[in-house]
Amino acid sequence: MDASNLALQCLLRDGGTETLVMYKPVRGERELWDFPDGTLANREAAAYAVSAVGGWDLVPPTVLREGPFGEGTVQLWVDPADQGALIDVVPRRRLRQGWLPVFDAQTFDGTRVVVAHADRPDLLAAAVFDAVVNNADRKGSHLVLDGTGGLRGFDHGLTFHETPKLRTVLWGWAGQPLPAVELARLECLAGWLRDDRTALAATLARLLTRAELAALRRRVDRLVGAGILPDLPSRRPAVPWPPL
What we know:
Elements: E1 8-14, E2 17-25, H1 40-54, E3 62-67, E4 70-76, E5 87-90, E6 99-106, E7 112-118, H2 121-133, E8 143-145, E9 151-153, H3 180-194, H4 199-207, H5 210-226
Antiparallel strand pairs: 1-2, 2-4, 3-4, 5-7, 6-7, 8-9
């Protein structure tokens, strides 16, 4: 009920098989000042394609299909495991070992706190993925661990804008060198995006505009060329609101 856009948990039945999914119809998307109307579903599907082909395996399987309220995204539902927080708000003196501070803040009663996240390879990989897709809304609640301990990310409707809009809580590695595994992923992804005949490029061409696809190619090329994670921007918001 607290979702910004219409989000419905649904049950798919195929014979004796039942599967929980999240269905987000296009007609339930609210208007935004900085993203074209009726495009969030396409961006969610594009994020899954990049996550799957790029090897991040972050976004649960997501497809575009007709539903009770028209076309929208249908995404496999993931029940989060109770394995502790990945992103948290704590007094700085209680910042746990192995956690990275992102920014200082105050609670409503004036208590000074720090927003921080765990220093984990899978979270770092998510930060790289967000830089690739230009994620403008990486809140802490959009990342969970599934029943196997694998990291899963949700709500990728605000992605792939042609202008820089990266807003995330995963700034703990800002400006640091890309790990070899992430650099290798990016190099492969750059090759697939440059060739319009690849399945990935063809899929993204159906979901994004030419300008958005060209901007995606440039972002990947810049990441490969620089070999480091993006640094915090100085002239635009760096964190979504609310951050968690």
